Structure formats: C-alpha cells, structure tokens
Amino acid sequence: MTTQILSILKKYPDSSRDALIPILQEVQEAEGYLSRESIARIGEHLKLPTSKIYGVATFYNQFRFQPLGKYHIQVCRGTACHVKGSAKVLDALKRELKIDAGETTRDGLFSLEVVSCIGACGLAPVISINGEFFAGVEADKVKKILKKFRKKGASNGK
Amino acid sequence: MITIEVNGRKVRANPKETILTVLKREGIKVPTLCHLPDLFPTGACRLCVVEIEGIRGLVPSCAYPVSEGMKIKTHSPRALRARKTIIELLLSNHPDDCLYCVRNGDCELQSLAEELGIRERRYTGAKNEYKIDTSSPAIIRDPAKCILCGKCVRVCEEIQGVAAIDFIGRGSRAQVGPAFNEGMNISSCVNCGQCIVVCPTGALRERSSIKEVMDAIADPEKFVVVQHAPSVSVTLGEAFGIKAGKDVMGIMAAAMRRVGFDRVFDTSFAADLTIMEEASEFVQRLKNNGKLPLLTSCSPGWIKFVETFYPEFIDNLSSCKSPQQMMGAVIKSYFAEKEGIDPAKIFSVSVMPCTAKKFEAERPELIHHGIADVDAVLTTRELARIIRMRGLDLKNMTPEGNDSPFGERSSAGKLFGVTGGVMEAAVRTAHYLVTGKEMEDYVVEDLRGLEGIKITKIKIGDLELGLAVASGLGNVRNLLDEIRAGRDDIHFIEVMTCPGGCIAGGGQPLAADQKAIKSRMKSLYEIDRDASIKTSHSNPYIQRLYSEYLGQPLSEKCHHLLHTKYQKRDVLK
Ligand code: SF4
Ligand code: SF4
Ligand code: FES
C-alpha cells in the first residue's frame, strides 16, 4: 500500500500546501481511508505537521480515518430522506453499532457514512449497504437488517 | 507620527501600529482572547472590537492599523454590547464548574464575564461530551473548557516549532488536540506547557502532584525533602501580589518548612554540579575530537524535541542529567548515607518552573530498581496553591536558609534560570579548567538578554570558541538545520525550551507580560552581581561533595549517578 501512496505523491512533486486536499482525496480513493501511515507520509512530503493534516481532513466530512467495514452502510441525509425521518435511522444505527458516522466497528464488520443524496428519493428514507438499497427504513427495522448482515458475515468465515 | 482621537482625546501614534498597541500604551484596556503579542493577529475572537467613526461595522483593534485622524470609541455602548454577547455565547456551552476548576479566580473567561457584568444566562447551547485527556504526565487537556481561541495551537507551532496540536473537526464540535485525537502522551508534544501559559481557561493545565506530595508529608514513615529550581524564587512572589522579579528565597524556604518538608534544598547547587560535569565533558570533547557542538541537556522539553525531531543530534547532547535529576540522585545517595536514612524512605519533591520536568522525572532511564531520582514534581503554581491551602502568609514569614549539605550555591548555578545562564556558568568553569585561571570579567554580555538566539565567540587560552544560545524551540530549528548543512564554527549550544528560559517556563505564575519576565531576568543578574561565589568550581560545598564522595568530575561514580542516555522517538510528527 505504501507504493500506492508514493505514486500518488509523485504526482505532486513541488510539495505545495495547495496540493493537500487533492492528495488526501486520492489517497482515500486508493486505500478507502486515511491511515496514520499515509498521513505521516503526506506530512513528510508536504513538510506539514500531521496535526495540521488531520485538522484539515477532519474539517471536511468526506474523509475517514478507519478502514471501511466489510459492510459499508451509507445513510442518505438528502431532503426527502430527512423529511421522512432519516435522522432517527442514523441515530438507531449509531446506537446499534456503537460508532459514529465516519467510524468502523471494532470487529471490522460495519462502517457508517452519511451521504448527501443517493438519488433514490422515491425510496426514502433509504440506506445502502455495499450498494444494496433498503427502502423505507424505519428506526425499528435497523436491528433486523443488521442481524441479517451479522449472520452473513459470520457464515462467510469472518 | 500621526494623531488620532481616542474617546474624544488626541493621541499620538506611529503609522502602521495596531489600534490595540496604541490603546495599551495609553492605558486603555480593551479585552482580548485570541491576541498573542508577537504573532500575526488572527482576529478570531472579536472581543477587542472598537467603534471607528465612518466605518460601519465594529473593527478588531488587535488587527487594525491606525491612520491619521482616525476617531476611535473603545467603550461605546455598541462595542460593549458586542463584547458582552461574545462572552455570553462562549459561556452558553461552557461547563458550570468554576468552583472546582484549577483556574477559578485566575481565568480570563471568568473575569471577562465579571467585567462585562454578565449576571444571567441568556443563551443555552448544547454541550458536547468530551473526554478529558489525562494520558500525558505533564499536560491535561479538557476540551469541554476550550473556547477555541487558537492561542495554544499557534504557540505550539509558531513559537515552539512543535505543532503537536491543531483544531480538529469544525463548528460546534471542533476541539483542539493532536493528530487522530490521540493521547498527548503519544503525540509529538514536548510537555513544555507554553500552551497552558497562553490558555485563557482551564482547558489546558498541568497534571497536579499536590495530592501525592501532601500524602507523603502526612505519612510518618516518609522523609520528605524538597528542592527548588533557580528561577522559582524570583517568580513565586507574583502569585502573592509581590512585585515581579522580587527574590523571595528566604521566605519561600520558611514557607516550605511550615508546609512540612523535612529538608529544603536549592537546585542551584545541583546546577553547580551539572556545570562541573558538563564543562569537563566539553573540555574532554574539545581535547579528544569528540562530537561537537555539545548541546546542553538540562531542559527536558528540548531533550524530547531532539529525540523526536532531530535524532541525528542525540550524540551531541551532553550526557549530564539535568540539575533536578542530579539533585535527586545525590539526595538519595550522598545525603541518605550521610544522615543514615534508607533511600527507599525518602520522598523527593522538586518545585520547578516547568511542566516537562514532570515528564523527565518519570523517564525510565532515571529510575533504578524502582527508586526514582525524583518522586514528585510541582510547578511554581502548584507550590503557590499549597502555600495558600496551608494558610501561610508568605509576606509575613521570617526568611530562612536552605539546608546542608547542599546549602550554598554559586551565582553561576542561579543563572540557570535565564536563557544564556547555563552557558555563562559553563564558560566560567571551562575557562578555569583549560587555563587554570579565572576569567577577568565573568559576565559575557553577548549571552545576556531575552533574544531567542544569541551567538558569540570567546577566547579561552588559545582556543577560539563559537557559542550559541537559543530559547523557544522554534528558534533552535534554523540553527540545527544550518549545522546539519555543514556549519561548523559553533562548539557549544545552550538550549532552553521556553522563550526566555526557565523564568518564563510553562509552570510559572500566569499572566506575566514581557515586563514581568524582564524583571525576573534582572533579578537573577543582580543576584549574580552581588554574589561572593560566582563560579561553580569555587563553591566549597561542591568541592566537598567531590572530595568526600564523587572523586573527580566524570569519575565512574559520577557516571553512575549523574549521567544518562537518550532515545530516538517514533511518534507522529
Ligand atoms: S506542551 Fe508545548 S509541545 Fe506540548 S502541546 Fe503544549 S505547547 Fe505544544
Ligand atoms: S485549549 Fe485554551 S488556548 Fe487552546 S484554543 Fe482552547 S481555550 Fe484557546
Ligand atoms: S483579540 Fe482581537 S480578535 Fe481576538
């Protein structure tokens, strides 16, 4: 994975600070998240302290600092979903998984992300798990959905 | 010079000065929360706003330059209202535990609320659940009390060149902390405490050792000794309303005995011991083509800085322990033997101007078979709290002296409290070691004063030596980079972590301005001027310690007790 980062950094040879956001985006694209190691590398390359990079990265919602879970859950917070109570769905997910948006469960099974609009407004409130859409999700359905994936995860030998 | 009008009165000013600078000079206090005197203004808090005729919005005086004919109103109803609202909003999600806060009575937010007459809660903001970071041996981080003024972030990066902390997240959930919001203990933080000194609230504070110390004093099995660092006697008074810089050595020693310490020792004596070892080490390196420049090792923030950011200079660091640790080591050996006390029963406390000393005392290299050189470190601020807690009226104490066998110090040892002082003390003894003669004039003017970097050349016998003194870690970076690039005309470098040295350390009484720090410095220079023993090697108690116990400087016994090693640190930088 280090070689991946190195080749990304090579594309920004003059190591100017303006390159920070695009580099962060590319690294996350390549690795799924921003690891300690990649942030340290980027810091060396741009001569920026890691505290600064982490600060900039946490300013934007798009960056995550833990690897994606086996099942990546995206909660739509677009207008339609919002009106239909997606906040409650998100709360239920957080409570069930004991993580915040942007985080991954300890067993590595689930990760949670809030996205603006997945363009499935007709299904509101909607969540997607590894690309599979779940329509009209209500807070009390969350448990059941998660259970299904937990089972699946276990039977897959994870 | 230009003329402006402040609150209807004509005032002379220099063009390009900020409004705030002029107001300060004119004795008009406009409150600030994010302003740092020597750094570029960020205009973040907007507390310093004033009204200017002809300009619609209020203007932050810390960032706005004066111009000819400008008419300023500093305390108009509009400006006051704006300030009041800002503080009310900051209070809206602030924890209401002032009574239990270490900064109670000493908090900028609290006193602004009082000054602006805030008597009710008009806004209630949502409070975030934050964890208090207690991972560091020196610095406690309590994000709930943070008002996001950003001063700690700027001091850490721009003055100290460390950048261990920054803003994390944004909006109402923003906080200040190290990368990945990890514990301070595993960050690049060097424990200098300069962030505490600028923090207006209790969001950053030292880890307190008051309880441990008071417990030890209450324990009849323990023999509790205390040592006080060179700078403490010229700063402690400020915590009791005594003029900045006043040397309170005698009444401090008296107060320490009333608190219950069994012996009171002066760390300046151990500074003399450090000089004996370090000057000898320097002369040895000069003679044997050893690694140069020699870097001083008495400032633990600096040591961690080298270990973290410049590990290739580890072999340049003097192997001498700091005075705190040397004192601790001879207390539990020489002193213990002399008095027939079991070293395991001794509880050794030090009072330091410094938060990094707390970290130093816990370094595993400095603990042998479970016996630490120093058991607990208090900052000057903590000592002041203990004195108050014990109801002692410092001003009405009768001065007392320090205890033997470490009673006398030279004034060279006392100079350790100010930037350049270690170098001056070392040069005095190195001169004697090389030439066998004393210097004609002990004072090396070029090494004095509060500048962040001082470089000079001196002659010792036929040797021409380059000396450099740096304080404030940001200032040392350039110098180390130059040396890395091949600069070779400097033989000895003194570094103190805090800008100005220990007199401005991270554990000193708060709210000291540059004037107070200068008074502290002057006081140490006066002590040196008036002293009868001005060099470490002529201190008779030092001579006795060597003849009775240690042998020669750099002897095997000295190596065992007084020298140490350093390690490269792999942390996120
Ligand atoms: S103690 Fe010093 S190094 Fe650590 S965060 Fe504060 S200013 Fe930075
Ligand atoms: S911790 Fe203190 S100095 Fe730092 S931003 Fe918060 S209030 Fe300001
Ligand atoms: S002090 Fe001027 S904006 Fe904060």
Please, could you describe this protein's structure?
The complex is a heterodimer of chains A (158) and B (573). With 158 residues, chain A is of the alpha+beta class. Chain A has 2 domains: 3-59, Arc Repressor Mutant, subunit A, CATH 1.10.10; 71-155, Glutaredoxin, CATH 3.40.30. Chain A has 7 helices and 4 strands, in the order ααααβααβββα. A 4-stranded mixed beta sheet of chain A has the order 2-1-3-4, covered by helices on one side. In chain A, strand 3 and strand 4 form a beta hairpin. The longest helix of chain A has 14 residues, at 142-155. The relative contact order of chain A is 0.13. The mean pLDDT of chain A is 89. With 573 residues, chain B is an alpha/beta fold. Chain B has 3 domains: 2-89, Ubiquitin-like (UB roll) (Roll), CATH 3.10.20.740; 128-207, 2-Layer Sandwich (Alpha-Beta Plaits), CATH 3.30.70.20; 211-562, Rossmann fold. Chain B is 34% helix and 14% strand. Chain B is built from 18 helices and 19 strands. Chain B has a 5-stranded mixed beta sheet with strand order 2-1-5-3-4, covered by helices on one side. A 4-stranded parallel beta sheet of chain B has the order 11-10-13-16, with helices on both faces. Chain B has a 4-stranded mixed beta sheet with strand order 12-19-18-17, with helices on both faces. In chain B, strand 1 and strand 2 (9-13) form a beta hairpin. The A-B interface holds A 36, 39-40, 43, 49-55, 58-59, 65 and B 157, 163-170, 178-181, 187-188, 572-573. The complex binds iron/sulfur cluster (2 copies) and FE2/S2 (inorganic) cluster. Residues 32-35, 43-48, 60, 62 of chain B line the site of FE2/S2 (inorganic) cluster.
